[in-house]
Protein backbone atom coordinates (compact mmCIF):
# COMPACT_ATOMS: atom_id res chain seq x y z
CA UNK A 1 0.00 0.00 0.00
CA UNK A 2 2.85 2.43 0.68
CA UNK A 3 4.27 2.03 -2.82
CA UNK A 4 0.83 2.25 -4.41
CA UNK A 5 0.08 5.44 -2.52
CA UNK A 6 3.15 7.00 -4.13
CA UNK A 7 2.08 5.72 -7.56
CA UNK A 8 -1.44 7.07 -7.06
CA UNK A 9 0.06 10.46 -6.27
CA UNK A 10 1.80 10.44 -9.66
CA UNK A 11 -1.46 9.32 -11.27
CA UNK A 12 -3.26 12.23 -9.62
CA UNK A 13 -0.68 14.60 -11.10
CA UNK A 14 -1.12 13.04 -14.55
CA UNK A 15 2.42 11.62 -14.71
CA UNK A 16 1.22 8.02 -15.08
CA UNK A 17 -2.01 6.45 -16.28
CA UNK A 18 -3.20 3.39 -14.38
CA UNK A 19 -4.81 1.91 -17.52
CA UNK A 20 -1.82 2.42 -19.85
CA UNK A 21 0.41 -0.63 -20.54
CA UNK A 22 3.43 -0.42 -18.26
CA UNK A 23 5.67 -1.23 -21.22
CA UNK A 24 5.24 2.44 -22.13
CA UNK A 25 7.22 3.39 -19.02
CA UNK A 26 9.87 0.65 -18.99
CA UNK A 27 13.01 -0.26 -20.89
CA UNK A 28 12.43 -2.86 -23.59
CA UNK A 29 14.78 -5.46 -22.08
CA UNK A 30 12.48 -5.81 -19.06
CA UNK A 31 9.32 -6.43 -21.09
CA UNK A 32 9.06 -10.15 -21.87
CA UNK A 33 5.27 -10.62 -21.81
CA UNK A 34 2.88 -10.60 -24.76
CA UNK A 35 -0.50 -9.39 -23.47
CA UNK A 36 -0.46 -5.75 -22.29
CA UNK A 37 -0.25 -5.28 -18.52
CA UNK A 38 -1.33 -2.06 -16.82
CA UNK A 39 -0.59 -0.58 -13.41
CA UNK A 40 -4.17 -1.45 -12.49
CA UNK A 41 -3.38 -5.09 -13.30
CA UNK A 42 -0.28 -4.97 -11.12
CA UNK A 43 -2.19 -3.37 -8.25
CA UNK A 44 -4.86 -6.06 -8.34
CA UNK A 45 -2.47 -8.94 -9.09
CA UNK A 46 -4.21 -9.70 -12.38
CA UNK A 47 -1.18 -9.34 -14.65
CA UNK A 48 -1.15 -13.08 -15.31
CA UNK A 49 2.38 -13.71 -13.98
CA UNK A 50 3.47 -17.00 -12.45
CA UNK A 51 4.87 -17.11 -8.93
CA UNK A 52 8.55 -17.53 -8.13
CA UNK A 53 11.11 -16.72 -5.45
CA UNK A 54 13.74 -15.81 -8.02
CA UNK A 55 15.52 -12.58 -7.16
CA UNK A 56 13.81 -12.25 -3.79
CA UNK A 57 15.74 -13.20 -0.66
CA UNK A 58 19.35 -12.48 0.26
CA UNK A 59 20.90 -13.20 3.63
CA UNK A 60 22.85 -9.93 3.50
CA UNK A 61 21.03 -6.75 2.36
CA UNK A 62 24.36 -5.52 0.98
CA UNK A 63 24.04 -8.18 -1.73
CA UNK A 64 20.92 -6.51 -3.15
CA UNK A 65 21.63 -4.89 -6.51
CA UNK A 66 19.49 -2.59 -8.66
CA UNK A 67 15.76 -3.31 -8.79
CA UNK A 68 15.80 -3.82 -12.55
CA UNK A 69 18.59 -6.41 -12.32
CA UNK A 70 16.53 -8.49 -9.89
CA UNK A 71 13.37 -8.19 -11.98
CA UNK A 72 14.93 -9.13 -15.32
CA UNK A 73 13.69 -11.38 -16.68
CA UNK A 74 10.18 -11.07 -15.31
CA UNK A 75 8.32 -14.30 -14.45
CA UNK A 76 6.41 -15.79 -17.36
CA UNK A 77 2.93 -14.53 -18.14
CA UNK A 78 0.88 -17.72 -17.88
CA UNK A 79 -2.68 -16.36 -18.19
CA UNK A 80 -4.47 -13.42 -19.77
CA UNK A 81 -4.46 -10.19 -17.71
CA UNK A 82 -7.63 -8.99 -15.96
CA UNK A 83 -9.12 -12.48 -15.77
CA UNK A 84 -7.91 -14.18 -12.59
CA UNK A 85 -6.03 -12.92 -9.56
CA UNK A 86 -2.80 -14.47 -8.35
CA UNK A 87 -0.69 -12.57 -5.83
CA UNK A 88 2.56 -11.54 -7.49
CA UNK A 89 5.48 -10.06 -5.57
CA UNK A 90 7.25 -9.48 -8.87
CA UNK A 91 4.20 -7.65 -10.21
CA UNK A 92 4.21 -5.33 -7.20
CA UNK A 93 7.94 -4.77 -7.66
CA UNK A 94 7.45 -4.05 -11.36
CA UNK A 95 5.10 -1.23 -10.36
CA UNK A 96 7.93 0.14 -8.23
CA UNK A 97 10.21 0.03 -11.26
CA UNK A 98 7.61 2.01 -13.23
CA UNK A 99 7.64 4.59 -10.43
CA UNK A 100 11.44 4.78 -10.55
CA UNK A 101 11.53 5.01 -14.35
CA UNK A 102 9.00 7.83 -14.49
CA UNK A 103 10.76 9.76 -11.71
CA UNK A 104 14.21 9.12 -13.17
CA UNK A 105 15.89 7.91 -9.99
CA UNK A 106 16.50 4.73 -7.99
CA UNK A 107 13.42 3.35 -6.28
CA UNK A 108 14.37 4.02 -2.61
CA UNK A 109 15.17 7.66 -3.39
CA UNK A 110 11.93 8.11 -5.34
CA UNK A 111 9.90 6.78 -2.42
CA UNK A 112 11.59 9.27 -0.11
CA UNK A 113 10.85 12.15 -2.48
CA UNK A 114 7.30 11.18 -3.43
CA UNK A 115 5.85 9.87 -0.17
CA UNK A 116 8.07 9.26 2.85
CA UNK A 117 9.34 12.85 2.91
CA UNK A 118 6.01 14.64 2.28
CA UNK A 119 4.23 12.50 4.89
CA UNK A 120 6.92 13.02 7.52
CA UNK A 121 7.77 9.32 7.68
CA UNK A 122 11.36 10.18 8.59
CA UNK A 123 12.25 6.87 10.21
CA UNK A 124 11.15 4.75 7.26
CA UNK A 125 13.24 3.57 4.33
CA UNK A 126 13.43 1.11 1.43
CA UNK A 127 17.23 1.39 1.29
CA UNK A 128 19.26 -1.80 1.56
CA UNK A 129 21.34 -1.80 3.62
CA UNK A 130 19.75 0.77 5.93
CA UNK A 131 21.60 3.85 7.10
CA UNK A 132 23.59 3.36 10.31
CA UNK A 133 21.04 5.42 12.24
CA UNK A 134 18.04 3.36 11.14
CA UNK A 135 19.93 0.09 11.36
CA UNK A 136 20.85 0.69 15.00
CA UNK A 137 17.19 1.41 15.82
CA UNK A 138 15.82 -1.57 13.87
CA UNK A 139 14.28 -4.45 15.80
CA UNK A 140 15.99 -7.82 15.67
CA UNK A 141 14.08 -10.56 13.89
CA UNK A 142 14.07 -14.03 15.42
CA UNK A 143 13.92 -17.38 13.64
CA UNK A 144 14.92 -20.21 15.95
CA UNK A 145 18.67 -19.95 16.25
CA UNK A 146 18.87 -17.18 13.65
CA UNK A 147 18.73 -13.57 14.86
CA UNK A 148 18.90 -10.96 12.15
CA UNK A 149 17.92 -7.36 11.59
CA UNK A 150 16.33 -7.92 8.21
CA UNK A 151 16.87 -10.16 5.22
CA UNK A 152 17.67 -8.46 1.94
CA UNK A 153 14.86 -8.37 -0.63
CA UNK A 154 15.95 -8.05 -4.24
CA UNK A 155 12.50 -6.97 -5.47
CA UNK A 156 12.35 -4.27 -2.79
CA UNK A 157 8.96 -2.63 -3.57
CA UNK A 158 7.29 -5.92 -2.64
CA UNK A 159 8.28 -5.69 1.01
CA UNK A 160 11.61 -4.07 1.90
CA UNK A 161 10.13 -1.14 3.84
CA UNK A 162 11.56 -0.68 7.33
CA UNK A 163 9.26 1.64 9.28
CA UNK A 164 8.59 2.72 12.83
CA UNK A 165 5.16 2.42 14.45
CA UNK A 166 4.96 6.22 14.60
CA UNK A 167 5.52 6.48 10.85
CA UNK A 168 2.91 3.84 10.12
CA UNK A 169 0.50 5.83 12.27
CA UNK A 170 1.12 8.83 10.00
CA UNK A 171 0.49 6.64 6.96
CA UNK A 172 -2.80 5.47 8.46
CA UNK A 173 -3.79 9.07 9.20
CA UNK A 174 -3.22 9.87 5.55
CA UNK A 175 -5.72 7.22 4.49
CA UNK A 176 -8.45 7.57 7.11
CA UNK A 177 -8.37 11.41 7.05
CA UNK A 178 -8.74 11.87 3.28
CA UNK A 179 -5.09 12.79 2.77
CA UNK A 180 -4.68 14.97 5.87
CA UNK A 181 -1.89 14.43 8.43
CA UNK A 182 -1.84 16.59 11.55
CA UNK A 183 -4.15 19.12 9.92
CA UNK A 184 -2.10 19.44 6.71
CA UNK A 185 -3.47 18.30 3.32
CA UNK A 186 -0.58 16.08 2.16
CA UNK A 187 -2.47 14.20 -0.55
CA UNK A 188 -5.61 15.19 -2.43
CA UNK A 189 -8.78 13.53 -1.21
CA UNK A 190 -9.49 12.45 -4.80
CA UNK A 191 -6.25 10.46 -4.82
CA UNK A 192 -7.20 8.72 -1.59
CA UNK A 193 -10.58 7.83 -3.11
CA UNK A 194 -8.79 6.51 -6.20
CA UNK A 195 -6.68 4.21 -4.03
CA UNK A 196 -9.45 2.95 -1.78
CA UNK A 197 -12.20 2.13 -4.27
CA UNK A 198 -12.60 -1.43 -5.49
CA UNK A 199 -10.58 -2.12 -8.64
CA UNK A 200 -11.17 -5.84 -9.10
CA UNK A 201 -13.18 -8.73 -7.72
CA UNK A 202 -13.77 -12.28 -8.89
CA UNK A 203 -17.48 -11.99 -8.05
CA UNK A 204 -19.65 -8.94 -7.44
CA UNK A 205 -20.57 -10.05 -3.91
CA UNK A 206 -17.03 -10.94 -2.80
CA UNK A 207 -14.43 -8.70 -1.23
CA UNK A 208 -11.85 -7.84 -3.86
CA UNK A 209 -8.88 -5.52 -4.23
CA UNK A 210 -8.38 -1.78 -4.09
CA UNK A 211 -5.21 -0.10 -5.42
CA UNK A 212 -2.64 -2.12 -3.51
CA UNK A 213 -5.06 -2.83 -0.66
CA UNK A 214 -7.08 -6.00 -0.12
CA UNK A 215 -10.73 -5.69 0.87
CA UNK A 216 -12.16 -7.66 3.75
CA UNK A 217 -15.71 -8.08 5.03
CA UNK A 218 -14.98 -9.82 8.33
CA UNK A 219 -17.45 -7.63 10.18
CA UNK A 220 -20.43 -5.55 9.06
CA UNK A 221 -18.24 -2.86 7.58
CA UNK A 222 -15.80 -2.58 4.66
CA UNK A 223 -12.18 -2.73 5.68
CA UNK A 224 -9.06 -2.61 3.53
CA UNK A 225 -5.59 -3.71 4.42
CA UNK A 226 -2.53 -5.74 3.59
CA UNK A 227 -0.37 -8.22 5.45
CA UNK A 228 3.17 -9.30 4.76
CA UNK A 229 6.04 -11.34 6.03
CA UNK A 230 9.76 -11.97 5.74
CA UNK A 231 11.77 -14.85 7.21
CA UNK A 232 11.89 -13.02 10.58
CA UNK A 233 9.07 -10.43 10.57
CA UNK A 234 5.27 -10.48 10.15
CA UNK A 235 3.06 -7.39 9.89
CA UNK A 236 -0.54 -6.46 9.16
CA UNK A 237 -2.25 -3.16 8.33
CA UNK A 238 -6.03 -2.71 8.60
CA UNK A 239 -8.03 0.43 7.76
CA UNK A 240 -11.73 1.19 8.16
CA UNK A 241 -11.81 4.58 6.40
CA UNK A 242 -15.49 5.34 6.93
CA UNK A 243 -15.04 5.46 10.72
CA UNK A 244 -11.44 6.72 10.77
CA UNK A 245 -9.98 3.52 12.23
CA UNK A 246 -6.54 2.12 11.54
CA UNK A 247 -4.51 -0.71 13.03
CA UNK A 248 -0.90 -1.68 12.41
CA UNK A 249 0.58 -4.74 14.07
CA UNK A 250 4.07 -6.20 13.64
CA UNK A 251 5.99 -9.13 15.09
CA UNK A 252 9.74 -9.73 14.97
CA UNK A 253 9.33 -13.49 14.90
CA UNK A 254 9.16 -16.17 12.23
CA UNK A 255 6.21 -18.00 13.80
CA UNK A 256 3.78 -15.07 14.07
CA UNK A 257 1.56 -15.77 11.06
CA UNK A 258 -1.40 -16.87 13.20
CA UNK A 259 -1.54 -13.87 15.60
CA UNK A 260 -0.85 -11.51 12.70
CA UNK A 261 -4.25 -12.55 11.32
CA UNK A 262 -6.24 -13.43 14.45
CA UNK A 263 -5.67 -10.21 16.39
CA UNK A 264 -7.04 -7.86 13.67
CA UNK A 265 -9.93 -10.26 13.02
CA UNK A 266 -10.83 -10.26 16.72
CA UNK A 267 -10.71 -6.46 16.93
CA UNK A 268 -12.87 -6.00 13.83
CA UNK A 269 -15.37 -8.53 15.14
CA UNK A 270 -15.47 -6.93 18.59
CA UNK A 271 -15.89 -3.30 17.56
CA UNK A 272 -17.50 -3.33 14.13
CA UNK A 273 -19.82 -6.32 13.96
CA UNK A 274 -23.56 -5.84 14.25
CA UNK A 275 -26.18 -8.54 14.60
CA UNK A 276 -25.16 -12.09 13.84
CA UNK A 277 -25.36 -12.92 10.15
CA UNK A 278 -28.43 -14.99 9.35
CA UNK A 279 -27.51 -17.76 6.93
CA UNK A 280 -30.38 -19.82 5.49
CA UNK A 281 -30.61 -23.54 6.05
CA UNK A 282 -29.56 -25.85 3.20
CA UNK A 283 -32.50 -26.75 0.98
CA UNK A 284 -30.98 -29.75 -0.75
CA UNK A 285 -28.13 -30.38 -3.13
CA UNK A 286 -26.59 -27.16 -4.48
CA UNK A 287 -26.62 -26.16 -8.13
CA UNK A 288 -24.17 -28.26 -10.18
CA UNK A 289 -23.36 -30.22 -7.03
CA UNK A 290 -21.35 -32.95 -8.73
CA UNK A 291 -19.28 -30.40 -10.66
CA UNK A 292 -18.31 -28.53 -7.48
CA UNK A 293 -16.71 -31.54 -5.84
CA UNK A 294 -12.95 -31.88 -5.99
CA UNK A 295 -9.66 -30.28 -5.07
CA UNK A 296 -8.81 -26.67 -5.86
CA UNK A 297 -5.27 -25.27 -5.62
CA UNK A 298 -4.03 -21.69 -5.42
CA UNK A 299 -2.85 -20.17 -8.69
CA UNK A 300 0.16 -18.73 -6.83
CA UNK A 301 2.55 -21.34 -8.21
CA UNK A 302 5.43 -21.42 -10.67
CA UNK A 303 5.07 -23.09 -14.04
CA UNK A 304 8.40 -22.44 -15.78
CA UNK A 305 10.81 -21.70 -12.92
CA UNK A 306 13.33 -23.83 -11.04
CA UNK A 307 11.35 -23.44 -7.80
CA UNK A 308 8.01 -24.58 -9.27
CA UNK A 309 7.92 -27.61 -6.99
CA UNK A 310 8.55 -25.46 -3.91
CA UNK A 311 5.83 -22.94 -4.77
CA UNK A 312 3.40 -25.77 -5.50
CA UNK A 313 4.12 -27.46 -2.17
CA UNK A 314 3.44 -24.13 -0.45
CA UNK A 315 0.22 -23.41 -2.36
CA UNK A 316 -3.00 -23.65 -0.30
CA UNK A 317 -5.56 -26.19 -1.45
CA UNK A 318 -9.26 -26.59 -0.71
CA UNK A 319 -11.13 -29.89 -0.80
CA UNK A 320 -14.83 -29.44 -1.57
CA UNK A 321 -17.21 -32.05 -0.18
CA UNK A 322 -21.01 -32.11 0.18
CA UNK A 323 -22.91 -33.01 3.36
CA UNK A 324 -26.08 -35.07 3.35
CA UNK A 325 -28.20 -31.94 3.88
CA UNK A 326 -26.65 -30.20 0.85
CA UNK A 327 -24.15 -27.91 2.60
CA UNK A 328 -20.62 -27.67 1.19
CA UNK A 329 -17.88 -28.87 3.50
CA UNK A 330 -14.26 -27.70 3.61
CA UNK A 331 -11.39 -28.17 6.01
CA UNK A 332 -11.03 -30.75 8.76
CA UNK A 333 -13.23 -33.80 8.28
CA UNK A 334 -13.92 -34.02 12.03
CA UNK A 335 -14.84 -30.34 12.37
CA UNK A 336 -15.52 -29.00 8.86
CA UNK A 337 -16.58 -25.52 7.80
CA UNK A 338 -20.12 -25.53 6.40
CA UNK A 339 -21.18 -23.37 3.47
CA UNK A 340 -24.80 -22.85 2.37
CA UNK A 341 -25.79 -21.88 -1.17
CA UNK A 342 -27.44 -18.44 -1.23
CA UNK A 343 -27.33 -18.04 -5.01
CA UNK A 344 -26.31 -20.46 -7.74
CA UNK A 345 -22.54 -21.06 -7.34
CA UNK A 346 -22.38 -18.62 -4.36
CA UNK A 347 -22.08 -19.91 -0.79
CA UNK A 348 -21.95 -18.39 2.70
CA UNK A 349 -20.30 -19.78 5.80
CA UNK A 350 -22.80 -20.74 8.51
CA UNK A 351 -20.59 -19.43 11.33
CA UNK A 352 -18.68 -16.45 9.96
CA UNK A 353 -20.85 -15.20 7.10
CA UNK A 354 -17.83 -15.26 4.80
CA UNK A 355 -18.57 -16.06 1.15
CA UNK A 356 -17.06 -18.22 -1.57
CA UNK A 357 -18.03 -18.50 -5.22
CA UNK A 358 -17.23 -20.78 -8.12
CA UNK A 359 -16.18 -19.79 -11.62
CA UNK A 360 -16.70 -21.60 -14.90
CA UNK A 361 -14.78 -21.99 -18.14
CA UNK A 362 -16.70 -23.10 -21.22
CA UNK A 363 -19.56 -24.22 -19.00
CA UNK A 364 -17.45 -26.34 -16.63
CA UNK A 365 -16.66 -25.44 -13.01
CA UNK A 366 -12.95 -24.67 -12.93
CA UNK A 367 -12.23 -22.12 -10.18
CA UNK A 368 -12.93 -21.33 -6.55
CA UNK A 369 -12.99 -17.72 -5.33
CA UNK A 370 -12.67 -16.95 -1.62
CA UNK A 371 -13.80 -13.56 -0.33
CA UNK A 372 -10.85 -11.49 0.85
CA UNK A 373 -8.29 -13.57 -1.03
CA UNK A 374 -6.49 -12.02 -3.97
CA UNK A 375 -5.62 -15.40 -5.44
CA UNK A 376 -8.10 -17.67 -7.18
CA UNK A 377 -7.91 -21.43 -6.80
CA UNK A 378 -8.08 -23.78 -9.77
CA UNK A 379 -9.54 -27.28 -9.89
CA UNK A 380 -6.86 -29.96 -10.21
CA UNK A 381 -7.17 -33.61 -11.15
CA UNK A 382 -5.89 -36.43 -8.94
CA UNK A 383 -2.70 -36.80 -10.97
CA UNK A 384 -1.89 -33.11 -10.43
CA UNK A 385 -2.14 -33.33 -6.65
CA UNK A 386 0.88 -33.03 -4.39
CA UNK A 387 0.40 -36.50 -2.81
CA UNK A 388 0.30 -38.09 -6.27
CA UNK A 389 3.55 -36.42 -7.32
CA UNK A 390 5.28 -37.24 -4.03
CA UNK A 391 4.20 -40.88 -4.39
CA UNK A 392 5.52 -40.89 -7.96
CA UNK A 393 8.81 -39.45 -6.71
CA UNK A 394 9.05 -41.95 -3.86
CA UNK A 395 8.48 -44.96 -6.10
CA UNK A 396 11.02 -43.64 -8.61
CA UNK A 397 13.62 -43.13 -5.89
CA UNK A 398 13.14 -46.68 -4.64
CA UNK A 399 13.73 -47.94 -8.17
CA UNK A 400 16.84 -45.80 -8.57
CA UNK A 401 18.23 -46.86 -5.20
CA UNK A 402 17.78 -50.52 -6.11
CA UNK A 403 19.44 -49.90 -9.47
CA UNK A 404 22.39 -48.17 -7.82
CA UNK A 405 22.78 -51.02 -5.33
CA UNK A 406 22.02 -54.12 -7.39
CA UNK A 407 23.50 -53.22 -10.77
CA UNK A 408 26.81 -51.87 -9.55
CA UNK A 409 29.38 -52.83 -12.22
CA UNK A 410 32.52 -54.70 -11.23
CA UNK A 411 35.76 -55.59 -12.96
CA UNK A 412 36.94 -59.15 -13.44
CA UNK A 413 40.07 -60.33 -11.65
CA UNK A 414 43.12 -58.67 -13.14
CA UNK A 415 41.06 -56.45 -15.45
CA UNK A 416 42.28 -52.85 -15.59
CA UNK A 417 39.90 -49.90 -15.66
CA UNK A 418 40.77 -49.21 -19.29
CA UNK A 419 40.21 -52.84 -20.25
CA UNK A 420 36.86 -52.76 -18.48
CA UNK A 421 35.79 -49.63 -20.39
CA UNK A 422 36.87 -51.15 -23.70
CA UNK A 423 34.98 -54.35 -22.92
CA UNK A 424 31.72 -52.40 -22.57
CA UNK A 425 31.57 -52.05 -26.35
CA UNK A 426 31.39 -55.78 -26.86
CA UNK A 427 29.79 -57.07 -23.66
CA UNK A 428 26.07 -56.13 -23.62
CA UNK A 429 25.66 -57.42 -20.07
CA UNK A 430 28.38 -55.12 -18.74
CA UNK A 431 27.04 -52.25 -20.82
CA UNK A 432 23.52 -52.75 -19.47
CA UNK A 433 24.72 -52.75 -15.88
CA UNK A 434 26.91 -49.70 -16.43
CA UNK A 435 24.15 -47.56 -17.92
CA UNK A 436 21.49 -48.18 -15.25
CA UNK A 437 24.11 -47.77 -12.51
CA UNK A 438 25.40 -44.51 -13.97
CA UNK A 439 21.90 -43.12 -14.49
CA UNK A 440 20.66 -44.14 -11.04
CA UNK A 441 23.76 -42.72 -9.37
CA UNK A 442 23.52 -39.44 -11.30
CA UNK A 443 19.87 -38.88 -10.39
CA UNK A 444 20.35 -39.85 -6.75
CA UNK A 445 23.37 -37.57 -6.41
CA UNK A 446 21.45 -34.65 -7.93
CA UNK A 447 18.47 -35.18 -5.61
CA UNK A 448 20.70 -35.40 -2.53
CA UNK A 449 22.71 -32.29 -3.44
CA UNK A 450 19.52 -30.35 -4.21
CA UNK A 451 18.01 -31.24 -0.84
CA UNK A 452 21.21 -30.30 0.98
CA UNK A 453 21.43 -27.01 -0.91
CA UNK A 454 17.80 -26.19 -0.13
CA UNK A 455 18.33 -27.06 3.55
CA UNK A 456 21.57 -25.20 4.17
CA UNK A 457 21.19 -22.23 1.80
CA UNK A 458 17.47 -21.78 1.27
CA UNK A 459 17.81 -18.15 0.16
CA UNK A 460 20.48 -19.05 -2.37
CA UNK A 461 18.55 -21.93 -3.89
CA UNK A 462 15.24 -20.09 -4.17
CA UNK A 463 16.51 -16.66 -5.20
CA UNK A 464 19.64 -17.16 -7.26
CA UNK A 465 21.14 -20.67 -7.54
CA UNK A 466 24.93 -20.59 -7.62
CA UNK A 467 27.04 -21.31 -10.67
CA UNK A 468 28.38 -24.40 -8.90
CA UNK A 469 24.87 -25.78 -8.49
CA UNK A 470 23.98 -24.99 -12.08
CA UNK A 471 26.93 -27.06 -13.30
CA UNK A 472 25.46 -30.03 -11.44
CA UNK A 473 22.62 -30.14 -13.97
CA UNK A 474 24.98 -32.33 -15.96
CA UNK A 475 23.81 -35.08 -13.58
CA UNK A 476 20.10 -35.15 -14.50
CA UNK A 477 21.07 -34.73 -18.14
CA UNK A 478 23.28 -37.79 -17.80
CA UNK A 479 20.47 -39.63 -16.05
CA UNK A 480 18.02 -38.77 -18.83
CA UNK A 481 20.36 -39.98 -21.58
CA UNK A 482 21.22 -43.21 -19.79
CA UNK A 483 17.53 -43.76 -19.09
CA UNK A 484 16.65 -43.67 -22.78
CA UNK A 485 19.52 -46.00 -23.62
CA UNK A 486 18.61 -48.33 -20.75
CA UNK A 487 15.11 -48.79 -22.13
CA UNK A 488 16.64 -50.10 -25.36
CA UNK A 489 19.03 -52.29 -23.41
CA UNK A 490 16.12 -53.61 -21.33
CA UNK A 491 14.47 -54.80 -24.54
CA UNK A 492 17.74 -56.43 -25.57
CA UNK A 493 18.14 -58.11 -22.17
CA UNK A 494 14.55 -59.33 -22.30
CA UNK A 495 15.26 -61.11 -25.58
CA UNK A 496 18.45 -62.62 -24.22
CA UNK A 497 18.66 -65.83 -22.24
CA UNK A 498 21.68 -64.61 -20.25
CA UNK A 499 19.62 -63.35 -17.29
CA UNK A 500 16.94 -64.87 -15.15
CA UNK A 501 13.37 -63.63 -15.40
CA UNK A 502 13.76 -61.86 -12.05
CA UNK A 503 16.82 -59.95 -13.26
CA UNK A 504 15.16 -59.00 -16.51
CA UNK A 505 12.05 -57.73 -14.72
CA UNK A 506 14.12 -55.79 -12.20
CA UNK A 507 16.28 -54.26 -14.90
CA UNK A 508 13.19 -53.15 -16.83
CA UNK A 509 11.74 -51.59 -13.68
CA UNK A 510 14.96 -49.66 -12.99
CA UNK A 511 15.05 -48.45 -16.60
CA UNK A 512 11.44 -47.34 -16.12
CA UNK A 513 12.46 -45.51 -12.93
CA UNK A 514 15.13 -43.63 -14.90
CA UNK A 515 12.54 -42.53 -17.46
CA UNK A 516 10.08 -41.66 -14.68
CA UNK A 517 12.63 -39.48 -12.89
CA UNK A 518 13.45 -37.76 -16.16
CA UNK A 519 9.77 -36.96 -16.63
CA UNK A 520 9.43 -35.79 -13.00
CA UNK A 521 12.38 -33.41 -13.15
CA UNK A 522 11.32 -32.11 -16.56
CA UNK A 523 7.80 -31.41 -15.24
CA UNK A 524 9.22 -29.41 -12.33
CA UNK A 525 11.83 -27.58 -14.44
CA UNK A 526 14.78 -29.31 -12.79
CA UNK A 527 16.13 -31.25 -15.75
CA UNK A 528 18.05 -28.31 -17.22
CA UNK A 529 19.25 -25.10 -15.51
CA UNK A 530 16.78 -22.21 -15.58
Automatic annotation (TrEMBL):
Pfam hit, one: Beta-lactamase
Residue span, Beta-lactamase-related domain: 1-268
Membrane-spanning intervals of the chain: 434-453, 473-492, 504-524
Keyword annotations: Membrane, Transmembrane, Transmembrane helix
UniProt cross-references to InterPro entries, sorted A to Z: AmpC-like, Beta-lactam-related, Beta-lactam/transpept-like
Keyword Transmembrane helix: yes
Keyword rRNA processing belongs to the record: no
PANTHER family per the UniProt record, alphabetical: BETA-LACTAMASE-RELATED DOMAIN-CONTAINING PROTEIN, D-ALANYL-D-ALANINE-CARBOXYPEPTIDASE/ENDOPEPTIDASE AMPH
Protein name: Penicillin-binding protein, beta-lactamase class c
Amino acid sequence: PVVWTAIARLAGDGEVDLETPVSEYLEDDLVNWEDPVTLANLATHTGGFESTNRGMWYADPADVQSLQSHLAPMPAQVRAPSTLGSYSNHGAALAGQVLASVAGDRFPAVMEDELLGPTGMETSSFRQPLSDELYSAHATGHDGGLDAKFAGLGISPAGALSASAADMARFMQLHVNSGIIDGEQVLDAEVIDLIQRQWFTHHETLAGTALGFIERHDADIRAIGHNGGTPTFHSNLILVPEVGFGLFISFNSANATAPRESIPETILEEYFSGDDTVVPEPTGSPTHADELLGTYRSLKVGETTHDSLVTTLQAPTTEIRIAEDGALLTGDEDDPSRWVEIEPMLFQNEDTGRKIAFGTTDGSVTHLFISGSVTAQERIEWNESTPAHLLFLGVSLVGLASGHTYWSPSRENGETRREWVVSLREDREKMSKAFVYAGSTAFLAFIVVTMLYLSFDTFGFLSDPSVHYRTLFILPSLGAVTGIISVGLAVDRWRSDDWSSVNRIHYALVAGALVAMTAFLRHWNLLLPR
